[in-house]
């Protein structure tokens, strides 16, 4: 019997036909779609079913269509209208609920009679489920695109990744901090650097809204939780919760009360940190919605004694019998815990204070003196000081 092809289906001269209502359908992720066709036969219909050529090895390898209702990938999400009461001819509707991106496929209807099988080798309806795309965060097939507008403003556009079959020119619901603010066909204008978040949904599908867009929420962390000690490795990390994703990170820092400087990148790394790196640090993160800075970290680098020296008081000529004080001085970030005094001839003096006092100095006290300072980060000897005692004549 001769047969002919139609744009929406296949049939022969009134006896056998499968005609699809739509050849292409675009639907939102998470929604429900109805794919329909009409079919007919001059014979009693036996075992009609819907299937997808992409399904399983049983179809690909053996050319045996597999009923979608028996496919593990579709269990609980597909149903046929009047599946058990097929007529000699009439409509058939395949409903797929809670659509996933992997449900994007071609779907075909086929039926058998006692004399022949019909429909499975001809093209069916192609379903596209909109999903994640590019660098913009999308959920349910919706995306909010951010573009610059007039100075101080941004334009938000709500898009679907393909034209929705059941609603090609939708009205969008716009949300500000999850509260409805307006209904528009899109776009929607907002102020740059606004602290609010914005999302959208197709009217009639409010339960399938997009991800919200918002400027970065920026934080900064230090690789070590304890004290920062000179010579150690330290990393400052700038991180951010943002949508669209962060485009750039900038570090701002001011060392030891100097002027602010900047560097780019999400991390500021010190392989061997120095006391000169002490100062204020904060970072800024920027995306298409605006810029946000982190809190400021006041970073103090701990270190042991440095640049130790000994001074004498009073200065000038020292006369036998006078009162003289030696003072141990230097730089240390963390107080000095211990001082030790030495005479360069190898003698260790008994006192352990910062100052060493001669109540009545004698000529025997002449010589070179130095001190040692110690804290929990290290210890260091000072340079030596020569003390020359002049005799006192009667």
From TrEMBL:
<dbReference type="Pfam" id="PF13927">
    <property type="entry name" value="Ig_3"/>
</dbReference>
<dbReference type="InterPro" id="IPR013783">
    <property type="entry name" value="Ig-like_fold"/>
</dbReference>
<dbReference type="InterPro" id="IPR036179">
    <property type="entry name" value="Ig-like_dom_sf"/>
</dbReference>
<protein>
    <recommendedName>
        <fullName>Ig-like domain-containing protein</fullName>
    </recommendedName>
</protein>
<feature type="domain" description="Ig-like">
    <location>
        <begin position="216"/>
        <end position="298"/>
    </location>
</feature>
<dbReference type="InterPro" id="IPR003598">
    <property type="entry name" value="Ig_sub2"/>
</dbReference>
<feature type="domain" description="Ig-like">
    <location>
        <begin position="123"/>
        <end position="202"/>
    </location>
</feature>
<dbReference type="InterPro" id="IPR007110">
    <property type="entry name" value="Ig-like_dom"/>
</dbReference>
<feature type="domain" description="Ig-like">
    <location>
        <begin position="305"/>
        <end position="386"/>
    </location>
</feature>
<dbReference type="InterPro" id="IPR003599">
    <property type="entry name" value="Ig_sub"/>
</dbReference>
<dbReference type="Pfam" id="PF13895">
    <property type="entry name" value="Ig_2"/>
</dbReference>
């Amino acid at each position: 019997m001769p047969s002919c092809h139609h744009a929406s289906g296949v049939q022969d001269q009134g006896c056998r036909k499968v005609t699809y209502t739509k050849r292409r359908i675009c639907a939102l992720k998470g929604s429900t779609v109805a794919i329909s066709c009409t079919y007919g036969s001059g014979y009693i219909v036996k075992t009609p079913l819907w299937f997808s050529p992409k399904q399983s090895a049983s179809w690909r390898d053996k050319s045996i269509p597999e009923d979608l209702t028996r496919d593990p990938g579709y269990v609980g999400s597909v149903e046929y209208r009047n599946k058990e009461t097929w007529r000699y001819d009439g409509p058939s509707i395949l409903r797929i609920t809670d659509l996933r991106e992997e449900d994007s496929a071609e779907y075909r209807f086929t039926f058998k009679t006692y004399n022949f099988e019909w429909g499975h080798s001809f093209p069916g309806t192609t379903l596209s489920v909109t999903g994640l795309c590019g660098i913009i965060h999308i959920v349910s097939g919706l995306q909010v695109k951010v573009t610059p507008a007039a100075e101080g403003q941004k334009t938000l556009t709500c898009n679907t990744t393909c034209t929705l079959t059941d609603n090609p020119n939708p009205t969008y619901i716009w949300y500000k901090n999850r509260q409805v603010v307006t209904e528009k066909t899109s776009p929607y204008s907002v102020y740059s650097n606004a602290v609010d978040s914005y999302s959208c949904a197709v009217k009639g599908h409010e339960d399938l809204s997009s991800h919200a867009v918002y400027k970065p929420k920026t934080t900064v962390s230090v690789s070590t939780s304890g004290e920062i000690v000179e010579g150690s490795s330290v990393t400052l990390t700038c991180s951010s919760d943002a949508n669209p994703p962060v485009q750039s990170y900038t570090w701002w820092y001011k060392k030891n009360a100097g002027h602010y400087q900047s560097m780019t990148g999400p991390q500021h790394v010190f392989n061997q940190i120095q006391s000169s790196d002490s100062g204020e640090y904060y970072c800024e993160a920027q995306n298409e919605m605006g810029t946000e800075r982190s809190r400021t970290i006041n970073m103090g680098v701990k270190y042991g004694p440095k640049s130790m020296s000994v001074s004498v008081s009073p200065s000038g000529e020292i006369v036998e019998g006078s009162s003289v004080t030696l003072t141990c001085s230097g730089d240390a970030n963390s107080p000095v815990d211990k001082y030790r005094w030495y005479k360069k001839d190898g003698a260790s003096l008994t006192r352990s204070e910062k100052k060493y006092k001669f109540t009545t100095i004698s000529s025997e006290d002449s010589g070179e003196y130095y001190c040692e300072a110690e804290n929990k980060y290290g210890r260091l000897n000072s340079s030596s000081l020569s003390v020359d005692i002049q005799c006192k004549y009667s």
